Structure formats: structure tokens, C-alpha cells
Recover the amino acids of this structure.
């Protein structure tokens, strides 16, 4: 494999407007699985317990406590395998249930998840309505979203693999309170968040089909958050914002190719700018460091020693 083709595969071009139908369907599927995780996992501050993680094959819940109908203990993991294009449910007793993703509407997917959980003896109840989307069709009724192009799903996963790797590297130098690198199914973004340690003003809320108290918990303390999502650029974008945003934050200097978006209220670095850069890793890391420093220095964060 040539160096050019290897780079293209690692940093795939995936135009946002070309995979809208698959993206919307996949987004809603992750909400179904994410709500199962929310129902089974023990609560953690800022909703960290509801998120998914990038894996070597797709996106997964990680282990969740799951008690069988007879009261027996066990652990459950659900994974979107975006290479084999199936949803896989595994229990700690060695059982495995799976079904293919292609050809399913959201309603079909929802039923298949419930049936698979039942086969594993896992009893779980979720509110079957999506969050943080403008039009919230209940999962059992959604036959509108039914597109799944395997090549698009795999390319998106490869974007997440690169973003996950760099965000983990960025995370490692911070010794204060910091979130895992995780995928939030509400907004369909991969994120990592650093905290100053101080309480923040009550968040105004306003996310579509999402109670304000959800945002109150998520943004209870001052933060600088960064990540990647399939928006903000022709092929998606890395982003960075602060809550609350300190005075002068939007005017902070950032690397060439990045900019502050008044529409989104955050700094953006388009994926297409990164993948065509001479050193993509260096560009993203410089963007993450610059935007974190813009928040921490202007908001007078307490000194936090970096490990390296």
C-alpha cells in the first residue's frame, strides 16, 4: 500500500451532505443503545455513564450490569460492529446475539434490540423517544429513517478512530478533573472535557427534546470541551468551546484553518483541513491546546500542572 492510499484510508473523505440519510439513521440507532446503557449503568456526574466508546470495530457500551429475569447477576456489552455491519450483544456468561444492520428502519432496529435483550434474559425499560433532534419520532413508529450505506458507516468510524486517538493524547497531559474520551449519542459527537474545579452558572438549556435539567447536570462546573462531530465542515469538524465562555474567548488566536463560528458558538477545525495537512496530528493538537489555553487563561483557571 502506498503512503498516499494509506493516509486516505486512515483519514477518509466523507462529505456530510453525501451520507445524511445513513448518518441520521445511525444517530437514532445509537440513541436506542445509549438509552439501554443509561438504564443499566450506575449514574456518573455529567452523564458520563450514558456514553459509548470507540472500539477496534465500531462503537460499544462497555460492560453494563444486567440481571437476568431469574435474578442472576451478569454483565452485558452491546457493540455496533461497523466492519461486519451488525449489532452484537454479548453477555459475561458467554452468550452472543447479533443481527445485521442493513435494511432496518429505526422501528425495526428498536424491536430487534428488545428481542435480543429478551433472548439474553435482560429486562430493561427505556423511554423510546430520541433526544436532541428537531423531529423526535418515537422509535417504535419511525419507519422514515431506514438508510444504511455500509461504506459510509465504516468511513465515519475511521474518522472516530483518528479523533479518539488524538483526543486521548491531548487528555493525557491534564492532571485536573477530565472526562473520558467518549461518544455522546445525543449530539452524535466524540468529546473530551476538562474542568477548572469551580461551579458554573446554571446552563440555560434549550436543546431540542431534552429537559433543561439534563444540561444543568452536564454543565454544572466550568469546563473546556473539545471533540469531533459530523458537522461544522464539508466533511465534519473538530470543535472546542468553553462554558461559560470568558470575555475575549472568541478572539483568541488559533492555527491556520481553524476559526470561531458565531453560528455554533465554538472554534472549528474542518476535517478536510486536517486530512490534507502535512502533519494532521500536529495540527489537531495545536488546535486543542490553543483553544484550551484560550479558555483557561482568560477565565483564570487554578494552576494545573501538566504531566508532559
Amino acid at each position: 500500500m502506498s503512503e498516499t492510499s494509506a493516509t486516505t484510508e486512515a483519514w477518509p473523505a466523507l462529505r456530510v451532505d453525501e451520507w445524511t440519510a445513513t448518518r441520521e439513521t445511525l444517530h437514532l440507532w445509537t440513541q436506542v443503545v445509549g438509552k439501554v446503557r443509561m438504564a443499566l449503568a450506575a449514574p456518573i456526574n455529567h452523564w458520563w455513564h450514558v456514553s459509548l466508546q470507540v472500539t477496534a470495530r465500531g462503537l460499544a457500551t462497555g460492560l453494563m450490569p444486567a440481571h437476568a429475569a431469574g435474578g442472576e447477576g451478569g454483565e452485558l456489552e452491546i457493540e455496533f460492529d461497523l466492519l461486519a455491519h451488525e449489532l452484537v450483544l454479548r453477555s459475561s456468561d458467554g452468550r452472543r446475539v447479533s443481527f445485521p444492520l442493513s435494511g432496518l428502519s429505526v422501528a425495526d432496529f428498536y424491536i430487534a434490540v428488545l428481542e435480543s435483550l429478551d433472548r439474553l434474559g435482560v429486562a430493561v425499560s427505556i423511554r423510546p423517544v430520541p433526544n436532541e433532534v428537531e423531529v423526535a419520532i418515537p422509535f417504535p413508529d419511525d419507519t422514515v429513517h431506514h438508510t444504511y450505506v455500509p461504506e459510509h458507516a465504516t468511513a465515519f468510524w475511521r474518522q472516530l478512530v483518528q479523533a479518539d486517538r488524538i483526543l486521548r493524547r491531548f487528555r493525557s497531559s491534564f492532571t485536573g478533573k477530565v472526562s473520558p474520551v467518549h461518544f455522546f449519542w445525543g449530539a452524535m459527537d466524540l468529546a473530551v472535557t476538562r474542568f477548572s474545579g469551580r461551579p458554573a452558572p446554571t446552563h440555560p438549556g434549550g436543546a431540542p427534546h431534552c429537559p433543561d435539567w439534563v444540561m444543568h447536570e452536564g454543565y454544572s462546573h466550568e469546563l473546556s470541551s473539545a471533540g469531533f462531530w459530523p458537522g461544522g465542515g464539508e466533511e465534519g469538524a473538530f470543535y472546542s468551546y468553553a462554558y461559560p465562555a470568558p470575555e475575549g474567548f472568541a478572539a483568541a488566536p488559533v492555527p491556520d484553518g481553524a476559526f470561531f463560528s458565531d453560528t455554533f458558538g465554538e472554534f472549528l477545525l474542518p476535517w478536510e483541513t486536517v486530512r490534507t495537512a502535512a502533519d494532521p496530528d500536529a495540527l489537531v493538537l495545536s488546535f486543542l491546546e490553543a483553544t484550551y489555553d484560550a479558555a483557561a487563561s482568560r477565565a483564570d483557571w487554578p494552576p494545573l500542572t501538566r504531566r508532559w
